Amino acid sequence: MDIVKRTTLMVRDVEAAANWYASVFGMTRWMDVPFTLSGRMLAVGSKGDQTRLVIMKAEHDVIGMIGLLEWLEPKQEAPVEIPKRVAFGSPIFVVAAQDCVATTERATAAGSHVYCQPHPWTVNGANGQPKQMIGASFFDLDGYFYEVNQAVG
Hints:
mainly beta, 2,3-Dihydroxybiphenyl 1,2-Dioxygenase, domain 1, 4-stranded mixed sheet, 2 helices
């Protein structure tokens, strides 16, 4: 079976983005490389574009990593305003937090737009049994949306 090991996000400023992921989720820098696009694999940019890829890892070094891709030359045009709503085609990342309140506080301190403050809620798990959670949601610095949940009890 295939596995999804990383999601790569286009970002305005790879250093600012890497610092956000380190401070909010405690991720560490796994790889940091400049590279030139071949013009074949990515459905964005052109052959010869100069980019920089920083891959951040959490607890696991094969799955759940986040790639941060910045165009150095030519610069990619980015929206002026950061989204405050999720649009069709946009990913929704779900994070299992040790402490949802603390994670949301770190996101706020790092400049995130918090869509929903931490609150208790209940969801039926895969086994059909209710699970008690504390959940919150916010956007990173480039407008990617995160739902953060902490299992309680």
